[in-house]
Amino acid sequence: MSDDDRDHDPFAHGRVCYLQLPAADLAAAREFYAGVFGWTVEDTGFEAPGLIGQWITDRAPADAGPLLWLAVSDLGGALEAVRTHGGTVDADPWDDGGERRLALVRDPAGNPLGLAAHP
Questions:
Q1: Which of 41, 85, 92, 101 would staple 35 via disulfide (CB 3.0–4.6 Å)?
Q2: Domains parsed from the chain with CATH numbers
Q3: Which residue has better confidence, 4 or 78?
Q4: How much is the pTM?
Q5: How are beta strands 51-56 and 45-48 bridged, if at all?
Q6: Which tens digits make up the pLDDT trace of 53-97?
Q7: Nearest Cα to Cα of residue 101 among 66, 71, 63, 67
Q8: Quick one: residue 110, left, alpha or beta (phi over 0 = left, psi -120 to 50 = alpha)?
Q9: Which long-range contacts (CB under 8 A, 24 or more apart) does 3-11 make?
C-alpha cells in the first residue's frame, strides 16, 4: 500500500479509528461535542472527521495517559464555545514555539482535551 493509499484508508495499520470518551451525562456530551467541534452525534455515539466513537458511562475521565488534541480553525471562538457548551478552559492559550496556538480545556465530564489552531 502506498503512503497516499494509507492516508485515505480509515483502517490503515496504526491509524486511530475508534475513540471511547467517558461521559457522566450523555446529553451534555452530545451538546458539547456537536456545539464545539461540529461532530455528528447520536444517542451514545459520535462521528468526527476520520473517526467514530462512543461515550461510555462506566469509566471516569483521567488526567493520566494520552491527551487528545483536536484541531480548531479559530481558537478564540472554540474557547468561547467550550464555555458556552458546559466545558472549562484550564489554561490560557500559548504559542508552541512554532506557528500553532494551543489551549487546554475540559469537556462537561472533566475529560482533558488539547486544542490546536494552525495558521
A1: 85
A2: 3-117 (3.10.180.10)
A3: 78
A4: 0.86
A5: antiparallel
A6: 999 999 999 888 889 999 999 999 999 999 999 999 998 899 998
A7: 71
A8: left
A9: 10/50
Helix, strand and coil percent figures for the chain, each rounded to 5: 25, 35, 40
**How far, in whole angstroms, is CA 51 from its chain's centroid?**
11
| Alpha carbon distances (Å) from 21 to 8, 10, 14, 34, 52 | 24, 19, 20, 14, 11
117 Cβ partners below 8 Å, 6+ apart? 71, 72, 73, 74, 75, 78, 93, 100, 101, 102
For 18-36, the pLDDT digits (tens) are 999 999 999 999 999 999 9
Cell of 54: 462512543
